[in-house]
Amino acid sequence: MHTYSEPGLFRVQLTVKIFISNLVKPIETNIVKIINVAPKSYFHIGGHVFANYFPIDIGEVYLYKIEENEVEPIDTAMFSGEYGFYIFPQVIEGEYFVKADLNHTSEYYNQFLSTYYSNKLHWKEADTIFNFSTNWEYDISLVPNTKLMYGPGKVSGNVTFDIDSKDPIDPACYIEIILYDAENHLVDVCHSDKYGNFELNTLDLQMYNVYAEVTGKHTIPLQVELDESLFEITQINITIGDYSVIGSISLGTIDNVFPNTISQVYPNPASDRIYIDLNQQIRNELVYFVIDQQGRSIMSGTIGPDDFNGYLIDINRLNPGLYFLRIEGNTYQTTRRFIKQ
Question: How far apart are CA 259 and CA 332, in angstroms?
Fold first, then answer.
């Protein structure tokens, strides 16, 4: 990173050297670009946050900046009082998301969902703010939680950061967990606690999708089913990675072994086919699903015992973009991420 002290035209050169050995001269190449550094302007962003037409008692508003398809957290405005007004002063020009949520000490916590500007629940659906002038009218009306269930069911689990993530390897506290039914209707909402644990109770016995909303990361909904033989699912693991949020269910010790028996997808990015390597530790037939960024399964197939030395999946018909490969056994599953060029 480099910050110029004044605007103007500048020549930028990147040089790459590949050292094969100490006895051979390194291979060297470079890229040169001429860039125009323009002066930046700063403006104010603000608005009210409402809950059923009334300002919320205490909460946070989060500001995210969109840079080259990456969504980065920039600032947090904590506020309380009778007006429910938030302010982000002196924000550099650019494109942003704004999200509001109740603080965990609020009287109405979990009675409303975290909501983005334009009153949307998910960052992919939210309107972006193009900050090129001061505006105090970016109001947000929190979406209410309209749960109407009183059944015997329960789902619970834990949210953590991926061990290989650039984020801290700590419990993911105050992450919003949204529960949808099979028709994608909102059922209930909760937040993970300071230890990363979450719990949803008094649920009807039916199929659900468990969804963790993490701004800027692609979430694959985890499908679970409650019935008369399984009233509770209490071992849901939600893992937040650098680019995606993936859920799984632990149903025994083999769940800890299974992900390590399957390689990462290669090559990655890929243009027409991907490969995975499997070992002989898992001996029964596996099922795989290719899932797009909206959580839709667009390809599927089976992997038999004869394929455990390596398996090829033809992705030539997929559109370019980010995809997830979910592999499932009888009582376990794992997910791999790949990019189609």
Answer: 9
What is the DSSP secondary-structure string of 108-126? TTTTB--EETTTBSSTTTS
User: In degrees rounded to 5, what are phi and psi of residue 336?
Assistant: -120, 145
Q: What are phi and psi of 307, to 5 degrees?
A: -95, 0
The C-alpha atoms of residue 333 and residue 265 are separated, in whole angstroms, by 15
Which tokens is 17 given? 């050297």
Asked if 179 and 210 count as a contact pair (C-beta separation under 8 A), the reply is: yes
Six-digit token pair at 321? 């973009």
pTM as predicted: 0.65
The pLDDT tens digits for 273-312 are 998 887 655 556 788 888 876 667 789 888 876 665 678 8
CA angle 298, 303, 304 (to 5 degrees): 155
Q: Is 68 helix (H, G, I), strand (E, B) or coil?
A: coil
- Tell me the per-residue pLDDT of 186-241, one tens digit each, with 9 for 90 and over: 999 999 999 999 999 999 999 999 999 999 999 989 999 888 778 889 889 999 98
8-state DSSP, 127? P
Residue 70: count other Cβ atoms within 10 Å of its Cβ. Answer: 10
Structure tokens at 240: 């937040």
CA gap 109, 96 in Å, rounded: 25
DSSP-assigned beta bridge partners for residue 87? 46
> Residue 210 to residues 178, 197, 200, 234: CA-CA distances in angstroms?
6, 14, 10, 13
Angle at 132 between CA 130 and CA 133, to 5 degrees: 115
